[in-house]
Amino acid sequence: MPLRHRARWSCLVIELVLLRHGESVWNAEHRYQGQQGTGLSARGRQQAKQAAEYLQSFEFDAIVASDLQRVTETLQPYVDTLDQPSVHVDRRWREIDVGTWGGRLIAEVAAEEPDVVEAFARGEDIARGGGETFRQLRARVWEAMQAIAHAHVRRVLVVTHGGPIRVAAAAALGLPVGAEMVLDPPGNCSLTTLRLDGLTAYNVPTGMDR
């Protein structure tokens, strides 16, 4: 299935509401995370509480989440407000894998591997640290989006990471693979909303950054 085309979703799916996790300890320390990493920082826990309050104005038919700790901790305050919470954990919504870069300071990597960092900044789709490319990330996120589409639900909360949100938004906009790099990285605990006919909101703050 060509990834450059808009999603051909079931007519029953109205929207996906994508929430990025709150600030993690490694975010605060300016470290690469990928599929490694820590739980939330104190600021991230406050962001998660504010996001939970913000989400009270929504009604969701389903909740889907990455399995990584920073996502689990972000989702918990919202889950605590629900009478009968049910969360489907889907590893396909994990952050892009940055391999050996995980846990390393961003400044340290820039100093030790400047050619790779500069190539990525130019838009080259490089598997940083021997991990994944954005093309690979987009393929698995596309599969996860299709799984939601086939679940016959109307509005779904997806709690995930910046990379998956960028490639999901690019798919909704019909951008070719690689063009997701033109989108700004989503902020911590921001919301992005995708509908059948494309992107309706991107990187909307839910708390202290509003």
Give the tags:
single chain; 210 residues; alpha/beta; Rossmann fold; six-stranded mixed β-sheet; 7 helices; 6 strands; 34% helix; 15% strand; disordered N terminus
SSE blueprint:
Blueprint lengths: L14 E6 L4 H4 L13 H13 L7 E4 L3 H11 L7 E3 L16 H7 L1 H8 L12 H16 L5 E6 L1 H12 L17 E5 L2 E7 L6
Parallel strand pairs: 1-4, 2-3, 2-4
Antiparallel strand pairs: 1-5, 5-6
Count of structural domains? 1
N- and C-termini, Cα separation: 38 Å
Give the CATH architecture: 3-Layer(aba) Sandwich
Could you give the count of β-strands? 6
Tell me, briefly, the overall form: globular
- Spans with pLDDT under 50 lasting ≥5 residues? 1-11
User: How would you classify the helix and strand content by structural class?
Assistant: alpha/beta
Beta-strand content estimate: 5-15%
Rg result: 16 Å
The fold-level CATH name is Rossmann fold
- The CATH superfamily bears the name Phosphoglycerate mutase-like
Determine the fraction of residues in helical runs and give it as a percent range. 25-40%
Description:
The longest helix has 16 residues, at 134-149. This protein has helices at residues 25-28, 42-54, 69-79, 106-112, 114-121, 134-149, 162-173, and strands at 15-20, 62-65, 87-89, 155-160, 191-195, 198-204. The protein is 34% helix and 15% strand. The N and C termini lie far apart (38 Å). The chain is α/β, with parallel strands linked by helices and 210 residues long. It has one domain (15-204): Phosphoglycerate mutase-like (Rossmann fold, 3-Layer(aba) Sandwich). Mean pLDDT is 89; it is low at 1-11. It has a 6-stranded mixed β-sheet. α2 packs across α3 (69-79) and α6 (134-149) packs across α7. It has 7 helices and 6 strands; from the N terminus they run βααβαβαααβαββ. This is Histidine phosphatase family protein. It holds the Pfam family His_Phos_1. InterPro entries: His_Pase_superF_clade-1, His_PPase_superfam, PG/BPGM_mutase_AS, PGM_Phosphatase. Substrate binds at residues 20-27, 70.
